[in-house]
Design goal:
2 copies of one chain form a homodimer. With 308 residues, chain A is of the alpha/beta class. Chain A has one domain: Alpha-Beta Barrel (TIM Barrel). In chain A, 48% of the residues lie in helices and 10% in strands. Chain A is globular and about 50 Å long. The two termini of chain A are 28 Å apart. Chains A and B meet through helix 2, helix 3 and helix 4 of A and helix 2, helix 3 and helix 4 of B.
């Protein structure tokens, strides 16, 4: 199956300066490291990137920092979905004006119990107001944060109304059955796993790839699984790669996930300032960080990962 | 008990023009009608006001429209809490710069499962960055939308750290037991009911008043209950007033509440354009509106309300 969007995309974390403003230089360096690791692209400003903890001006600056550092616009998939339509339109237009055509778009996430008709009206209004045929939208299914599941009937209506524009979904709910049903019902619509352990099963079902948090750390393994999932000759290497991915995921989930990922990224880059988060998220404590580093060393011994 | 904030405040709805921009003239007229009805103030840009469906620029324009129309700054309690801290600071500073000191502040509502430490850090960061001793903050407990309950321990920490600033809470969760416990634990901290049926029991417990949706329609009755709740000589009038309030509330809850309230406000002002909502909320259908008008007529017959 050919998809408009396919590959391993990093739900990149966002480093912060001491005043908790985005550390744009550290972010740009991280983006380059992710491409070096084998990421096809960077889904910056998602949940892991603390996007909704930044102002629109900060979000524009973060995207511009990646572009200025030489990351190709085609590799950048910023999150642009806010609770309100006008600022979602504005952020998405800013991305398009920078040559960044593909965005990951949350539904407007304040109200709960919203009907599919209401969510369709919101997405349609955003797409029509933008009015740019270059736009490519990846829907974002993360009901544990939004309370607003993206139903299959809603997808059906959106891909029918905007077949060139609504090209895929990031499914962060962690249920392979939901992904399998979308692959079956919507040929050519890219289903991207938001949960790392599901990359291998998803690729064996013909999925489009992933946008995950541990790709900040183990993108090499994710890229290996993505490329070789359906090659029986690589089954052993694929299993080893997925085991390392899962170990990282399990470790981050033993703490509050996003702060734990940031602490691990800090260790990776030898930059302890990466540990900072913006409220309401809080950085891991020094004790947690020490514990986490010790357990990371164990993982590196027990799960060496994909073949070199 | 003396409270810094006390009375009947309207969680005012926001009328929209045909392009779904805020209809500022209709909004200003509605504010005057609410004051005429007996509202002590207007808690504009809350959940009923579809605040999070507007951009920050639109929110500033809505507040400015009420001020320009001659509503006293001391009567305006705008919602200024967004998912991110910098724009919450910016919106709140804008209110203060217009002489509006009291705001209703949601917690940063994207992430779920956030700790009290994280919510404390977020509120404290906003208050400290604003750095204005005139500021008065009403916390906003509406877990059915935010997924982030405001715990009593969090209130304790906030009123201890900012005793002059954190002055009350809007409790929209609809449990009188929670309100009673806060009244007992935090003397001088104004507990405001977000659910209309609870105004009378709350006032009998010594509460601070209310910020509710049906006050767009029956503020006269709410003001009557507020003033006379503890006067045995007025018990009959108070019961009649509360019965009318409850009938309006029940009627709005028979539909999607906010669109139903807007349709009823439209009927009140003889302005059918009030029915418009911004996605993801959808206006009531023509059939629903006809049904609603018929049932409103029944209420007006069955529940005449407070004594003139």
């Amino acid at each position: 199956m050919t998809y408009a969007v396919s590959g391993v995309f990093c739900a990149s974390a966002t480093p912060l300066a001491s005043d908790l403003s985005p550390d744009l230089a550290a972010f740009a360096a991280h983006c380059h490291a992710l491409v070096q690791d084998g990421c096809d692209g960077i889904a910056l400003l998602g949940t892991t990137g603390e996007a909704n903890s930044f102002s629109s001006a900060e979000r524009r600056a973060i995207l511009e920092a990646a572009l200025s550092a030489g990351i190709a616009p085609s590799r950048l998939l910023p999150g642009t979905g806010l609770a309100n339509i006008p600022e979602t339109v504005e952020l998405t237009r800013h991305a398009l004006s920078s040559g960044v055509a593909t965005v990951v778009m949350l539904p407007p996430f304040y109200y709960k119990g919203v009907s599919d008709d209401g969510l369709f009206a919101a997405y349609a209004s955003v797409i029509e107001r933008i009015g740019d045929p270059r736009l490519r939208v990846i829907l974002y299914h993360i009901p544990q944060m939004t309370g607003l599941p993206i139903s299959h009937d809603l997808i059906e209506r959106l891909v029918t109304a905007f077949p060139e524009i609504v090209v895929g979904i990031k499914d962060s709910a962690g249920k392979i059955e939901n992904m399998e049903a979308m692959i079956a019902r919507f040929p050519g619509f890219a289903v991207l796993a938001g949960a790392d352990p599901l990359l291998l099963p998803l690729m064996r079902l013909g999925g489009g790839g992933c946008i995950t948090a541990t790709s900040n750390l183990v993108a090499r393994e994710l890229a290996y699984v993505f490329r070789n999932a359906n090659d029986p000759a690589q089954a052993e290497g694929v299993a080893a790669a997925q085991a390392r991915i899962n170990a990282y995921r399990d470790l981050s989930n033993a703490y509050v996930q996003i702060p734990a990922i940031k602490a691990m990224v800090g260790r990776r880059h030898g930059n302890p300032r990466w540990v900072r988060t913006r409220p309401p998220l809080l950085a891991v404590s020094a004790a947690e960080e020490a514990d986490l580093v010790r357990r990371l060393d164990d993982i590196d011994t027990l799960f060496p990962g994909a073949p070199a």
